[in-house]
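Attaching the record inline, Q. Sequence:
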Amino acid sequence: MRVGHTLGAGVALLGAGAAALGWAIARKLTAPVGMRTFNLVVRGIEDDGRVRWIVLDRTPDTTAQGVYNLWFERGGWVQLGSEMQDRGPQQIAREVTGTSDGPTLQVGDRVSWSGIYFATPADAGLEAHDIMINTPSGCAPAWRVGGSSSTWAIHIHGLGSSRAGTLRGVQVTTNLGYTSLVVSYRNDGDGLSIGGGRSTLGATEIEDVEAAISYAVRRGAEQLVLFGWSMGAAIALQLAHRSGYAQLVVGLVLDSPVLDWAEVIKANCARSNLPAGAGQLAIPWLTLDPLARSVGLPSRIPLREFDWVQRAAELTVPMLILHGASDDSAPVSISEALRDRRPDLVEMESFGAGHTLAWNSNPDRWRMSVSSWLLSHVSP
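Structure, as predicted:
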């Protein structure tokens, strides 16, 4: 009897521990937007008469090929070019190609590495109008770029990012003459904070993006190209499938797309040094209404609706996927699986980059890939 009681108690404790871990993962995944992490320190600032250099500790980020941005804890930012030089075994120097009007750089400044290369449309060489979109969650700020074309590009950022990140793609659509709408949505740090400020992984955010599309249609949009980054891709796919404006969507451009939340949750558990299988423990806390509410969500999230590998037969809109081969957040293998299931609709370009960093790793190739695809798939 004692052995049985001990075994039963152990099983109960294991079950309680698994439930607690699943709850914690679900809470972390849907957490309100937090502060940027400034986890790098400027070790040196050099000027050789040709190039200005910033010296940083050597990390996988700071040694990555391509162009990036450093955001400063004191405010301001610098753009980093592709040129770099060794500064011994522990440090690397990156060339500075642009700076904000913020504080003067100093050794010892704490900085944050980012793929968000442009802070504002003006930084990207774009002329934009600040507008407000009336959405079900309130007024959401957006940028409107251009204004004469009946082809509109709707740019949708991802979870934990900001609309500024999509400006990398707005440059392409502006050069093609499209009108662009760079949107925000509830609880993203730009739009209104509602409820507990938690993300619903695209399930309710879609309502705010659909309101932005309604704005575009009322102002002359006759065909739409949806640009989705990470979770923004999950939103774009839902809009192209079931929105009242789905018939106007003529193309999807998806960077590092979330195509299956269950697999993405597993990948992010592994990235956090948890067993990948721990991600399964979070699924009930997201998909069952009573449990979802205990996590702080307004209602359950229908994760199966976001599994586009299983739903591949339902796709009707041509799409271009751009994905980094070293993406440890949204696995590139999922994009490859979707391409293989629907080669008639899905084209894919792979880059040597991490999550949403394909543009940064090779801006010219990214722009050329997107521009060429749009020219061949979207009528003027």
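Residues 2-29 form the longest helix (28 residues). The two ends are 78 Å apart (CA to CA).

More tomorrow.
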